Amino acid sequence: MTLLHAKELRASGKHEQAREMLVALASQSTSDAVIHYEAACVHDFLGFEAQAVPFYVKALEGELPAPIRRSAYTGLGSTYRTLGMYQQAQEILVQGLAEFPEANEIQVFLAMAHHNLGQSKSAVESLLRLVAGTSADPQIKSYARAIEFYAQDIDRSWPSGAA
Length: 163
What we know:
Blueprint: H1 3-11, H2 15-28, H3 33-45, H4 49-61, H5 66-82, H6 86-99, H7 104-116, H8 120-134, H9 138-142, H10 144-151
């Protein structure tokens, strides 16, 4: 019973078997952050979001390679959000962005959490900046400067002055 075997099971579509193996591995290797991360992911995949949370938390408490750590922040933030734990989602995603400021995927999930917290203005402005800065669409690129400008305050308008 190894992490490699559990990954092979997942790759072959045997997610429930992989979940059982990863839970056992996690209980035996309480300090192995990668095993806890993999256990969180398989729980998420199978729709067991609430059961994924403690595995994500344990993974983030340990040593993870940067790409996995970045993904763990995204996964935990997304999971909190889907469970209706919007404040926790925001907190973990903000932590993730502090560690990985270039993580556009974390920004997207944070925008969703902001929306869920009633901060839709902040969410839309964030998404506008992201679209303007990352889109390969030539039409979006041609308006990127304007989109960035409007992202500074989406509610601002310029009345014509005509009565």
